Amino acid sequence: MIKQRKIELLAPAKNLECGIEAINHGADAVYIGGEAFGLRAKAKNFSIEDMKEGVKFAHERNVKVYVTANILAHNYDLEGARAYFEELKEVGPDALIISDPGMFTIAKEVLPDIDIHISTQANNTNYMTYKFWWEQGAKRVVSARELSLNEIKGIRKNIPDEMEIETFIHGAMC
Known about the structure:
Radius of gyration: 16 Å
Mean pLDDT: 92
Oligomer: single chain
Structural class: alpha/beta
Strand order of the largest sheet: 1-2-3-4-5-6-7
Number of strands: 7
Largest sheet: 7 strands, parallel
């Protein structure tokens, strides 16, 4: 018997206006990027003030907001990331989307009560990778975009039931 899981419609938002529209059109959650530490460089992205406004708008409608910090960090990024995560305490996102173990470690230190999702950028292609991230404290892993439905089913069978899997349903489009 297959266990039924709630499906969450997660939409990208390149700016506050897009986030509000996604929420108004039925998204269960939106993911946003700040002005630094995210890989969606062509998006306008959110200032801290826009994040606060967006999170407030979303939470008033029972919608979640996830903030990307999914760069592969260099040494010079780490102190800035720590300061950025400190700023996010006031924003109150529901989760961070991270791909780098160093960024993950800093996020766990600075924001221990915020869920961490592992980005597709971490190239998550096998169940041992999912188990690794679960043991580190990640709540969700985003599958590599290349995985087939059968490969994802194989991962699901080999990871804890409580662990969430996120999958792109429209190719590689965010």
